[in-house]
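Aim 2, interim progress: modelling of the NJP-bound target.
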Amino acid sequence: MELKDKVIIITGASSGIGEATAKKLAKNGAKVVLMARSEDQLNALKKVIEKDHGQALVAVGDVTKSNDFKTALEKTVKAYGKVDGLINNAGLMPLSFVEKLKTEEWDQMVDVNLKGVLNGVASVLPELIRSKGGAIINVSSMAAHRYFPGGAVYCATKSAVKMFSEGLRQELTPKYGINVTSIEPGAVDTNLADTITDEDIKEKMEDMQKMTTLESEDIANAILYTLTQPKRVNINDLYIVPSEQK
Ligand code: NJP
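Predicted structure of the complex, ligand included:
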């Protein structure tokens, strides 16, 4: 689609991939709605975007709360009159070995990585169906393709997001012209590993950090590419890994 003046809600916009994507889309003419829990970071990002002549709206919210999405959508429609797309990017990755039974972290991953995506889709879908178009991009992961140590639950959530995206695509794209994409990155240089509490995993992550990873902007570029295809094109999956990652 032509991005100019398109209204795109981006979850997890306070850092990493979400932040880079917000900057990239705003620079290309989109009106971006920044959603995450960290209000100060979102306000700072809004200022950066506006300084660069872009347009941004802050919608502080937790993706696990469907009411926060409802409020974000209301704010978006009040400010910009419509919504054209949703990028479900918020996520967390507290990797741990299953036998450690870090069940609270399992719940968090299911709630944010999977239910957060479902909440987002449920909130914007009526608007997209009404307008017979738009885009939903779900940030899944390389973890949807393969297991890695400590990733049993994380991989399960990201596989679910990939398959949910395919279901959405089959149900929505031919019928309503809503494009649906699953983005599946390998290692990206962000704060994602900060939630890991399992010491055995932390050691393994240090090895990973020796590799040249992707940068958030690489994924932002992929999202821009996805959103700017002609209407007849649906990018189903984009699986992007660092050249050095096996
Ligand atoms: O990580 P990070 P990434 N409600 O930690 C937000 C996937 N991915 O950019 O609420 C709302 O910098 C949090 O905001 P805040 C990954 O699984 C990454 O790498 O303010 N927002 C922050 O903005 C994830 O789906 C890699 O704390 C919530 C954002 O999520 C996506 O990329 C590899 C929230 C996380 O930003 C972006 O992560 C891969 C909530 N309840 C997939 N909880 C990678 N980096 O290597 C968290 O395969 N957030």
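Helices lie at 16-27, 39-51, 66-80, 103-131, 152-176, 199-208, 216-227. Residues 11-18, 36-38, 62-64, 89-93, 112, 139, 141-143, 185, 187-188, 190-192 surround NJP (CB under 6 Å).
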